[in-house]
User: Fold these one by one.
Assistant:
Number 1:
Amino acid sequence: MNAPSSAVTAAPRAPALDVARLRAEFPILSQVVHGKPLAYLDSAATSQKPRAVIDAVTRYYEHDNANVHRGVYQLAERSTALFDGARAKVARFIGAEPREVVLVRGTTEGINLVAQTYGRANVGPDDEILLTEMEHHSNIVPWQMLAGEKGARLVVVPVDDRGALRMDELERRIGPRTKLVAVTHVSNALGTVNPVKRIVAVAHARGVPVLVDGAQATPHLRVDVRDLGCDFYAFSGHKIFGPTGIGVLYGKAARLEQMPPWQGGGDMILSVTFERTLYNSLPYKFEAGTPDMAGAVGLGATVDWLERLDWAAVHAHEQDLLEYGTRRLQEIPGLRLVGTAPEKAGVLSFVLDGVHPHDVGTILDREGIAVRAGHHCAQPVMKRFGVPATVRASLALYNTRGEIDALVAGLHRVREMFR
Amino acid sequence: MSDLQDLYQEVILDHGKNPRNFRRIDRPTAEAEGLNPLCGDHFHVYLKLDGERIADVSFEGAGCAISKASASLMTSSLKGKTLAEARETFERFHKMVVEGDREQAKSLGKLAVLKGVCDFPTRVKCASLVWHTLQSALKGENKTTTE
């Protein structure tokens, strides 16, 4: 088994994160489950929400709700200002312009939007879309559907035995027919952090645009889309401590301008007659219908909350949890970690000899520990590592070493029951 | 913790570890594949009929202790039964596991050990997957999922 990443321990010591104070901001975390304190270790599936976000959504419904970009009355003005303000906050947060921030339902919808607009306009017979072996189904299936429709092909870059991307293979596989590289920033099943900047440099050197699935990176890393240089970056509100049902597709303005609109409807038009429709400008061209206004306002509050955090301290805390968890799990006989890349974030995926992950999950649940057991919507990764499923404990900034200790104790209990 | 011990009884752990009838049947009368896309459980059920009687029934595949034990116990229990008897057993099993009617356990023999499953709603599908797969095989459908 490989040692955990040591890259971060070398970084200058950040002031310690006050985790107890942080946890107190999350109402859901203080509850008892099956008589045990809840240890929520499934933040990669969805994160919990701080009071500030919950309150912002409630406040919006109680005081400000009206449809946006339509009414001339005060409520509508307020609602529109909050909605547009949220977009501006998100844009600033990721280093983009507001017109480059398309509000969608989540990462999956963002990727589908690119597949259905950029993809359908630019991918033809025998063209190739380059993916990696560690993609989530949401960054595979939209491209497979597109490839099926257009007679194009998916080309897959393999990962090595630790779960790191084979950069040599990526360079080798980008060819004259490659129309897009679609890659995850952080793997949801393995925790691998991909070198997105290098991938973008390699792809751009050959004139190929890059889409990044940022669903698992944004809860752990500060992302600057200009610094990464990617053409598209998609992420979800609910994974970064924000509301469900809202997410972001960032696209470079020049790319978005050239793309056809996606869904048709209200708000995405300038004028409509039965003969022809003039489409609205960015980003509204891609936002048909009444948007998730409360979700957007909640996302804005999420960004405010995230910006108040000391990110150096958050990063140090999360890396400590990851290293501590890796070490403690490796002490358990018969446990194999799946995904031990040198650069990792937030995920401890493993299998236990002779016990199916589903059974592990049920027994841990009775100890108050919430983990995910299954294929994590990444069946090709499971196949690569020769397992039908894994147990995944995923970490967020509110987790503690004590919760990892509870996990380890729970796993010993599993071994006793199945001995 | 009593409900957990109720779920993972010795008999279930034993059948999960050493499943009976865990093999394929050559030239089966009927067969079907069962999938639980949620957790990746994946089974194949084979059936050999002698008229209206189940001469042999077996399974292969991968899944959790509950699904494997359920398959092992199902095949053990149904071998030699008529199709009508098998259908009745399935109905009783379904009532016990899905609807939580523990009274059914009395007439289900060894299958009764699975009665604890009804207290674990997320695991009911694990126990019922092979049964639905068997039904698909009997109906001539080759694939079934829990969704």
Number 2:
Amino acid sequence: MTASVTVVGASLAGLSTARALREQGYAGRLTIVGDELHPPYDRPPLSKDYLAGTTSRAELDLLTTDDDGLAVDWRLGRTAVGLDTAARTVLLDGGERVVSDAVVIATGARARRLPGPTPAGVHTVRTVDDATALRAELVPGARLVLIGGGFIGAEIASTARTLGVDVTVVEALPVPLAGPLGAEVAQACAGLHGDHGVALLVGIGVERVLGDDRVRAVRLADGCELPADVVVVGIGATPCVGWLADSGLALDPVTGGVRTDAHCATDVPGVLAVGDCASPYRRYADRPLRLEHWTNALKQPATAAATLLGRPATVSADHEVPYFWSDQYESRLQFAGHQVAGDEVEIEGDVDARDFLAVYRRAGEPVAVFAMNRPRPFGKWRRELAARATAPV
Amino acid sequence: MIPVGALADIPVGEAIRVQADVPIAVFRVDDGAEGTVYAIDDTCTHQKASLADGWLDGCMVECPLHAACFDLRTGLPDGPPAKVPVRTHQVVVSDGMVYLKLAEPAELGAGTREVEVA
């Protein structure tokens, strides 16, 4: 019988865990620890409408009147610094120990930074405070250099253009996003930058950021210097698992996330992990995957709650299939499934008109779908993939 | 009233988008007969997406972006991520033509609340 649960992490995955526990009938004590002072808020708008100033701070808040019955003991602005798995005790900064029957790890991920100290004007964007600080510097005519052409980089580049900022994107790979999307589709996405007056430099690394008190340029590996008033580093994220170093919990050697089974259980009874920091076995890909997707953080906790309460897991069919979206330059990009190098890509529509659907096939079978500005057929394909994923073998 | 077009131009189980002051999504829901027509604000109250592009299941439409579900009859969301209902609009079908009588502008942001921090 579980009478107390501590959730470490107060973002979407942590909040969704609390909601799922209550929905599934859990009536015991519920504590949520979060290292930011803010109550749970939504992060996707931080690189889009919140950064553009068209979504307000209040609109980011995730809690609604429907959450009045959650009865959570919030510990916000507190950082978990250790986990004693045997005693199921979470150690907080300041020395407080939170003891409970079960612990759900939902600490998320943090933005990867450049090594060493950097001058003022160099940003990463993960938290609302990060986005607020960056927004203050994105003034018309400012010169912004984005280090990294991934989703965060591309979304910030596109938002900055709407603010009248002069934007250059530097990407180390020959084609940004080739990993998650495959080269052919990624090439089409990269074309969006040029369509909107953003310079994209590919296949070149960054040597360092120049400037004393304030950034003034980015020096590339070939010695070229790009003048810059503002720099955003968008080179991925790493799971927040450092606090678990002495816990004995197994981390996945490839993804770096907390290793769990398909039901969010770690190898320690009563300790589970969800969201960006977790690396569960995924039936859909037939291997462990650590996903940094919003939909995963929203849906996966229902599985964790069922596991924790000893109830049958009721995974919704669509959650078997990883899904993410990105908004760039008024184009809507959506992806569902899991593609690997070598999958065949079948394009329907007009790539040059930025209006197409791509179906990825392996041995003839559809395994993933991507759409640029084609939500209706994408929705049908996403359902088709979900139906295939859950069909009896 | 705003003219939408001919009922015959909206296949049963499908939706079209019409532009009023804001975009409106008009659905023709399969009811086993002629199909019932419903109209709601097209833009999801969660984040920008067209509900006319969503997945129709009975009288519920699922947003194509984040799977927020809205009841076409009441405009109410069935839970996160949407917090705010969409407006529903009165539909009139006359002589095979569809017309809309738009609802009053909605007060956006209702339903959100502050949290007390311990």
Number 3:
Amino acid sequence: MTPITTLHYLVLAAALFVLGVIGVLTRRNVIIILMSIELILNAVNLNLVAFSRLYGLQGQVFSIFVIADAAAEAAVAFGILIAFFRNKETVNVDEIDLLKW
Amino acid sequence: MTPVATTFFFYLLSGAALLGGVLVITRRNPVHSALSLIMTLLSIAGLYLMLYAPFVAGVQIILYVGGIMVLFLFVIMLINIEQASREERFSKQWPVGILAAAALGVLFVSVFFKGRSVLPTQLLVLPEEHNTQQIAVLLYSDYMLAFEIASLLLLVAMIGAVVMAKKRTTTP
């Protein structure tokens, strides 16, 4: 069997990224879309850590920043989502069509 | 310690990660999606361990699986999933979405295979026992400003989330 190279990790990360993009573009439920965004961020993190195997530890430091950003993004997104659900009783993106109520 | 059976574990973990990803975007019930996402996140933590990044793997498990995913599950239980589970799962533009995402994937893979000669073939030696220490030194020297900005970002996000989710006492 061939040894595992960086290219293997890059292809796996690309596959996870594409799955996340499909989720964002096709699902209607906002919560699933947020989960797909987490999938995309994880694919990017996997790339960063795989490259840190070649170029040094900076990639791992950046992946920690990406995880912190993911936490911040999830908190704000859920704040907006709960505020919206209280008013409109729906979580489908194609029914979310107002800026003010 | 050098990893054993790297090829087997790579394919096992990447298969679990991809299966979890597919389940995330296809399940009807958001709770099932969240559990599949946890499977993916744990597999990716295993891949981090294989890439000599034990600190990132620990942060992934503690912060992602223990923090963010619990937040997801809380929010799923706060909103009404009964109604969402009966409605149509996919939006009307799903063929275009899948086509665009597949084109993106083909682009990625072709770029990787065309440009793979750029990648260095020699792997670095990253000692695992000093990994956390080295990351901490980098965070507090070269990336000090970015670290402070990240803390500010978390503060702003916390305030923003509380303001957004707060009940309005007076209706404007």
Number 4:
Amino acid sequence: MEFEAAKLIGAGLAAIGIGGAGVGIGTIFGNYLAGALRNPAAAASQRGMLFIGFALTEATGLFALLVAFMILFKG
Amino acid sequence: MATEAGARAAGEAAAALNPLEQFEIHRLLPIRIGNVDLSFTNSSLWMFIAIGVVALFLLGGGARLVPTRWQSAKEIIYEMMSSMTRDMLGEKGRPFFPFVFTLFMFILTANMLGLIPYSFTVTSHIIVTFAMALFVFVLATVVGFVKHGLGYLRLFSPSGVHWVMKIILVPIEIISYFTRPISLSVRLFANMMAGHTMLKVFAGFVIGLGLIGGWAPLAMMVALTGLEVLVAALQAYVFAMLTVIYLNDAINMDH
Amino acid sequence: MCPRGDTGKDDLEALGERIRVSRRRHEPATAGRGGSASPLGVAFRIMTELVVAVMAAVLAGWGLDSYFGTWPWMLLLFTPLGMAAGVLNVLRAARALDDADFGQDAAGDTARHGNNAAWTKDDEKGR
């Protein structure tokens, strides 16, 4: 297989891993909303934790995007 | 033959609009001492600019009893870092507050400065973030050994666990302890590099689709830049918070 | 309770004189440390300890690498060691500065109240 074609296929396969970030971020925000609707007074105190959880989950998904970019543009 | 020529042309076309070109290091002032290349690069320049911006931000604005807006901004950031340090570490953590605050301000400023067009994002190189993460890791380890002696190794065997489980758990804990600097550095690096690469890729789409279709990628770029501002601040906060957590593990061993 | 007018001022002056005398009696014990440095000077000294330790270790690691040709392992070995040494130097310097600043006055206080920011069990007892 040609090198360019292999690179493109590899980058496409690596980018599948970002779906995990989507699932994770949706879970975090969904749980936060469910908890906030049950206990609105306590929701504001956990907003910091919400953003921290979002950042950590997004980072893990971005590891996959990073691999895709590295395959695509550095090979 | 034809496919090779086609591949080469495609490679050249890709190189013309290469999103990774923004991460290249250019020597602004070549300095060689013996065998070592200590040039003043664009990375060093933007690090100095980041330090200058942080210094100006912290030194200006006045120090009145009724704060000005600038002073309020400084106090908000100070209070955020101070309360985070105090909540997690208690009074024993006061000596580490300047370090955490400096780390946060530097990473925040470096990330934000990278969003200026034609600038260079200092933290988008793994060596920069790895140096910072390695230092945090070494600091937490040294502090742990200074405070607890060899009892710091009890960090790897959590209490209240049956000894059979410990045979499996201790190696896992040791490995996860050593992945701390890697995850800390790669998190910041991946966020910065992926974010800026995405911005460049969409910018390429804007030019490629021209005047007719370029509005859709442009709207996407506006949204992406907003997200990048949020990510810049958030990743700086997460880096500082993880530093505080690792120091908490070292100072107050709650395992 | 306190007398007003001229007698009050005399009392204050007598109190001030007693404070000055007792301060002069206590000062020789702490005068040996050469006066207190400005905060900027202290900060630069501590920063130098850290930076010099790291730079020296990096140079040593790089030098050993170029001599033995084992790039990059010596550098990878010596950089964390230099960072650890720098951190230890900073901790030691900070503790020395704490002792010089608080000296004997703190010893009595910590014996009575305990030290909240204590680092080791020795510090908690006020040594």
